[in-house]
Amino acid sequence: MLDRSHMLFLSPLALLAGSAVAQEKPRQAFDCDVPANHYSSVSQDLVEPFGISGSVKVVEMRSGDYLPVAGVLLRSAEGLNGVGFQLAAPSKDAELFDVILNTRNNGVSNQRIIAQISTRDTIPFSLLIDNSGKIRLAIGGTNYDIADFPPSELNGMVFCSTGQFKFTELTFSGR
To answer: Which of 38, 42, 91, 95 has its CA at 20 to 30 Å from residue 25's CA atom?
Structure first.
């Protein structure tokens, strides 16, 4: 069972905010390589409709007080609303990630494991919110529809903790 203290989504994060996106940005790469018990992230301000897509591959998972984790987060400016996912490994030698869906609605957080996926695979993902506020997560070839999301200006973030994870074909999009 994962302890909430290990979930980056619920921890305060220092955001590296960029300027608002006028259109889809070129695809990027992010080599997220941090020692045990540390995290790193890249983020960008987005406007509705918006999303983040790309692929992630674990290079090395490390042992520490915090779990090896990689993830994506879309969060409102005031921090009261957000949606994201984490790939969390119970140990540095784990063969499966728990795919954890994180939601925050008016300050109330919820998380649940929605799948497991191999730690050996390159994992394609997209987290998109359409004009009507409908959320769709596609990860590892499976699609999840995740209710509605209150429209607002959002910040998109990819992050990792306690390991090295390579994000490729990374796209932050918006209108």
So the answer is: 38
* Mean per-residue pLDDT pooled into runs of 10, the chain (175 residues): 40 31 62 97 82 96 96 90 94 96 91 96 93 87 83 86 97 74
The letter for the amino acid at 171 is: T
- Residue 47 CA to residue 50 CA, distance in Å, equals 6
**CA atoms of 50 and 9, how far apart (whole Å):** 19
The CA angle 7-123-5, to the nearest 5 degrees, is 5
List the Cα angle 43/29/48 in 5-degree steps: 40
Enter the tokens of residue 14.
């220092």
Q: Which of 127, 136, 122, 128 is nearest to 168 (CA)?
A: 122
Helices (H) and strands (E) in the chain, counts: 0, 10
Q: Residue 1 contacts by C-beta under 8 Å, 6 or more apart in sequence?
A: none
